[in-house]
Amino acid sequence: MISKVTSPRRLYGRVKPPGDKSISHRASLLNSIATGISHVSNFCVGDDRSSMLGCLKGLGANITRHTDCKISGSQECFEIVGAGLHGLSEPTDVLNAGNSGTTMRLISGLLAGQDFFSVITGDESLRNRPMKRITDPLTQMGAKINGRNNDSLAPLSFTGHTLKGIEYTMPVASAQLKSCLIIAGLYSSTPNLIHQPAESRDHTERMLNSMGGLLEIDGLTIKTDSKELKSVDVKVPSDTSGSAFWLIAAACHPDAKITIPGMGMNPTRTGVLEILESMNANISIENEHLEGGEPTADVTVSSSDLIATEISGEVIPRVVDELPILALAACYATGTTIISDAEELRVKESDRISATVDSLNRLGAKIEETKDGMKITGTHSLTGAEVETHGDHRIAMTNGIAGLLASGETTVGNSEDASVSYPSFWEVIKELQE
Ligand code: S3P
Questions:
Q1: At CA 107, angle to CA 101 and CA 112, rounded to 5?
Q2: Residue ranges of the chain with per-residue pLDDT less than 70
Q3: I need a labelling partner for 2 at 20 to 30 A (CA). Which of 168, 183, 380, 426 fits?
Q4: What is the pLDDT of residues 301-341, one digit of tens each?
Q5: Span from the CA of 102 to the centroid of ligand 1 (angstroms)
Q6: Active-site residue, from 20, 298, 321, 392
Q7: Which atom of ligand 1 is nearest to the CA of 179?
Q8: E strand or H helix at 284
Q9: CATH fold of 2-17+237-433, please?
Q10: Angle (CA) 227 176 30, round 5°
Q11: Which CATH number applies to 21-225?
Q12: Domain 2-17+237-433 and domain 21-225 have a common topology
């Protein structure tokens, strides 16, 4: 699909992005191995949702989609009948995580502790993403794993084995790795002690706590132990990462105001708001409240005189998915923005450093690629051009927002890639242009 976008004179509206992908994934996985019946509403949409639910169903999880759900009072919810920690069954076919790194890494933590054989694979992008970061510590815990390229690439196979706890210092601040180890820890005979180099999203920890799991957090160290979990109902907040696209569109457009109601405000995800604040963005936050242990709020951003900033260090894992769209914001800021310490971007759904630089370069930005980030000098203008998604949903959406800001027409090839996390993205773009 090809999407053509031009800049509207005004950009006003309320946008409700899909439910948070990270929270939806954890809610479905953990409730599938808990005891009891749960209802998860405002579940994420898109291909990644199908990947996670497909893997769980392949393991015998009992998950039913209801429309017009009486219990959660929402249009759609998923009813999950928990199988208990040891109630899953051997999949009769290869599990497919599609494009979803979170699905592959979290499900691997689960598979490592099962007493049956399983294989998990993914699409071409996922089969080239690094898995050694999970297979190494899982193997130390006693898991029997085989994979391509010395167990570093999917497909990965798991042969049932009992696990023991380890003390492990994570080499990267990755929520997927941390969550994989926490989930495997549910199947260990002794506690797991995990040291993180920096904080990353903590949805797994919050959800396990609300399910009665055994988890102690001391600064950057997490101790987990095995215990049956109790099912919990979850009303998933709007995806913080999906919201960031619209908030940044509003900050950069000269006549704009966009509100996101019920946006996820977990502090391990709101690095993007902290950075926008440091760039002088006009942000207002109202109606702050907790939704099933996760903070949410209505967030409004309006046209702003942005200034350049430096994005590096501990904030990087807390904005890892927002760096491409923040690079676009930097094009509309006065001064030079430097993004560094972000080499993880090179091993996402695409090499997001070179993909972002490629798109913004084509649109006439002053942007340079560095080893671990980007250097962007704001010019306050971009010119429509033909851009590509590099097979990556976040690059597809960054291109779409660039089209809302650039002069002339921006043509996005393979724009359907946005549907990995946000299938209605192009419809919202169209509505905002009317
Ligand atoms: C995710 C963690 C992040 C993020 C991804 C979702 C998760 O990756 O990029 O889109 O749900 O755990 P890291 O493993 O780099 O933190």
A1: 125
A2: none
A3: 380
A4: 999 999 999 999 999 999 999 999 999 999 999 999 999 99
A5: 6
A6: 321
A7: 12
A8: strand 282-291
A9: UDP-n-acetylglucosamine1-carboxyvinyl-transferase; Chain (3.65.10)
A10: 35
A11: 3.65.10.10
A12: yes
